Please model this.
Amino acid sequence: RGFAICSVVQKMAQPGYPQQYAASPISGEAFSKVELSISCSNLKDLDTFSRSDPAVFVYEARGKEWLKLGRTEVVDNNLNPKFSKTFIVNYHFEETVKMKFMVYDIDDKKRVDDTSRHDLVGVLECQLADLVTAGQQYTRTIRLPGASASRGKITVQAEEVQDSKYTLAIRLSASKLDKKDLFGKSDPIVEIAKAQEGGGFTVVYRSQPIMKNLNPRWPQFDISAQKLCSGDWDRTLKFSVWDWNKSGDHDYIGSCTTTLRDICPEKGGEVFNLKLINEDLRKKKKKYTDSGTLNFVSVRATAVHSFMDYIRGGCQISLITAIDFTASNGKPHLPSSLHYNNPYQDNEYVQAIRSVASVLAPYDSDQLIPVFGFGGRLPPDGHVSHCFPLNFNYERPEVYGVQGILDVYRYSLGQTELYGPTNFSSFLDKAIEFATGAVTQESQNYYILMVITDGVISDMGRTVDRIVAASKLPLSIVIVGVGGADFTNMETLDADDNPLKNKYGEKMSRDIVQFVPLREFKSKSGANFSLARETLAEIPGQFVSFMTSQGIKPNPPPLRKQPSQYIPPPYGTTDQPPYPTGGAPGVPPPSQQP
Model:
């Protein structure tokens, strides 16, 4: 992810890129990538009838503002959590980088990313250099801002990322596990931890429980070699099996140690099963042999290609835009409207287009971007449409570049009555139509749908069904929320923690939605860059996961298609519209206007 973000910023710094949208250039100086692993201990319990459900939010200082890098998963009912989510950051020896770790007790599982809904356990601020130079680990007390009382401890381990382009598909099972429950069989989970260079282990994976089963078969999971073993095939891995309990106090069954090289047949590994040992039981029982067997059903290593590998090989990235024309935005001629055209300050829709679309557009080789509206009443008969081209050309809804999006957005506001409701399913159908059949090994295409909206979704069930269907296609969806409405449904669609299911119970194949509320960034310096980074950070991973799932590899650069030789007419000419005339009208001429 970090490489992809750097690539985007470097693209923004290239000659010819609109500098009003560009972030500061990245220097060409060398830097290291560092992986941060987090755990906590003795956290203050903030729940009355159970233990806290902690998660850690990680921030990096950027100027005078804090940029959120992400958060860990939520660990239920646990005051001593070990998080499997890790973070990759860039470490420059010559720079001072301030980090902040905020531990929350998560109270609203449906809106995990909204910290205002949770109780703050404590905060740690430090320098990235402190983490890098700490040796084995960096452990400090967390406190509330301005307070002196301890609220527990946080431990951060920093390790340099090695170059590793492999992902592992691992399937595990166990047999004859010890029974831990008095009135039933165990509910086993398996946990994997990697040895740290300075000693100790860091958890990198934790399965879901298999209920009431002493011979469990866990589902296959994918994990990168970097996360599993820091790219070191000979690093010690500890596999531990526990009897899961809802309270969070899991009962230890046993563990074993091995290396990735030993269990991966593609690297000559010949270890297919190991005995699980509980050292406490072995010391107590003379006839103790083991607590069961862990079986390595399959361990497959696959070379992972990067987002940029595909781009260099000629994969075409196409942007689609959908803009909210519902009445909840307010009448456009009123200053209180989210669509108000203020001559002195961009409205929130324009801000979102400038900051997000301007990053995506350079990857769209022909710069022809379909732009749709939803929720508006259209001339001449006043019918309501939930997917209409803003240039009112249904055969060719494209405009040219970011400026084309801005121009056609402003034009259509004068032609369309804001109405409603806020239905997503119709324009999602259009995006699905674009993406269906769009990719083969020889012809690689990927679509990004950018949705800018202010309100609560009215057709949530149908929207979820469409997203589940779209998760099988070369499509990512970026939703930017404008205004101060309730965005609970958007958080649900983001589905970072709970995969969406359609009406038939089918889960989405992969995570394809990223939601960001614009107002989280409006007051910050460098807001456009921060919004773009937060919104687009997941796309390279979504892209690669789709290509990998389809068995599609990057084409070699010589096969890359040559860009179109057509050069659009200069903007501002009076004899033709500011869009290519060869199949992509922008604002329709008077003869075509409804």
About this structure: Residues 348-360 form the longest helix (13 residues). Confidence is low (pLDDT under 50) at residues 1-30, 558-594. DSSP finds 14 helices and 26 strands in the chain. The CA atoms of residues 13 and 25 lie 5 Å apart.
